[in-house]
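Predict the 3D structure for this chain.
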Amino acid sequence: MRNIVLGLVATGISASLGWLARTYLWRRKLRRKQAFFGLPDHSESMLVVNRAAGGPELSVKRYDVFALLELSALIKDCHARAQVVAHDATQQGFGERTEFCVGGPYSNRRTAAHLSSMLPGVWVNTDTEPVAERGTFRIGGEHYRMERGRSEYVLLARLTADEQEDSRPVFLFCGQRAVDNQAATRYLARHHERLHRKYGTGSFVLLLKVVNSQAYGPDVVELVADVTRAARAPLPETASADTAA
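Done. Predicted structure below.
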């Protein structure tokens, strides 16, 4: 009988230790995720909604809705809350609440403001003509044209107003098409742990390439380059002259 009791006690202790270890690891993983996204328990965040290019103000493309749903799941996993705000109804600074800003500068004024103030080395062609140049990115001295449905680009950025720990980040998903915005949100959801290991809670700007979206949708994404340095520096004089032309 004594051996049976001792065995039960040992089993109970082992199970308790295993549960405590799993709980500790789960909480540690959660805290790291919350730190990366700037979303402590019960915090507030903003989902800045763009509009369909050329459509009415309240029209949102299907892929952008999917992007917002994926971001909402991330926010919920961090035990935080989200407020959906229209791009032209957001009149506040950044750093107080984590912000997820979806869409390029042609459909999202908030994105245009962030690019202008925090990423002066990035220029996006918002003209409708000529069609071949529409949506072209210029980052530093390089340009990236869109081949619709075959080869498209999107910027994924985590930006902070300063390096203070209590400053909440802004996440930008600036794609040449709506499907590219969703591709960037999905890339962030899949790779946020690796990005946290590499960048911590600092700023970064990644250029991603969406491959053959007409067949694969937002699922096939390649990392082209870390363009943080070029994006945060002013455009070279030659590139500035070209954009003004």
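Residues 2-37 form the longest helix (36 residues).
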